[in-house]
Write the structure tokens for this entry.
Amino acid sequence: MTCEEAELLLAGGHADASVEDHLRFCANCRALEEEMAANALALHSLRGAELPGLKIRKRQPARPWIAAAAAAALLVLIAHQASERRPVVVASLHPRTETTPASVTETVKAFPKPAPKIYVRRKPKSVPRSTPPAEPLLVKMLTSDPDVVVYWVVD
Amino acid sequence: MGAHGSMVLRTAYRLLGRLEDAQDAAQEVFLRLFRSLDRIDGDPKAWLYRVTVNVCNDHHRKRIPAIELDEHRADPAPNPERALTLAERRRLLMDGLAILSERERTTVVLRDIEGLSTAETAAILGVEEGTVRSHISTARVKLAKYVRSRQ
């Protein structure tokens, strides 16, 4: 048996008696057998090995403080608007003449009766559009394969 | 999808040896997957392996052959007395994959690294099981000689 034959049989895991005989006299093939066994272990250990930097890129969330600040600003705005719309309770709107002392009634009469508040629904401000509504944006991405082109439609 | 994505990236990296190429190949594989979703029944693992191998082989053929030797990959002086650590052997084996033929490299990656059976590897590559056995034996001998020469 030649060394080439013995090597191939060893590599394929088909070491029979003739290969064993060859190994007894061939130090070179014995060393190669040990090398192949160590390689098999190393290759096997690669199976579940994490590759540094070889990860699917995940989209990082935007800075959380920006979202928190935006939420706080929105709350303040809503609270401010709500306080502006709250009806003001004026004494003259709910006169209690039967229980009001005369001096107080006189004082109230001295001041002009405030006109009842009229709420007018504001028209929403029309934001001028810088550009007229256009067709969806079409992004064309070329790949290494000339037959494959990726189109992204951005609405 | 995450597990499959990792599998495709890992296999592409073993076959191509470069991170950027592996990511390009993986992107191409998932593009093909997206276009073929209606034609794949059940677990797409075998399909993904087959397409990954095809895409990587296309990549290999297009790529300008260049051997990149970083500082950390520089060959150490031969020293038969020194035993290789597992990390060193892994690195040598990864380098050694480059000296194999396309079929041998693919067979080693699928059979010895990914742990597929001979039948699965043969089905993915579209060859007979005997051909896989022949390729794997030749590849193992070549890799063993390559590692020995670099110790």
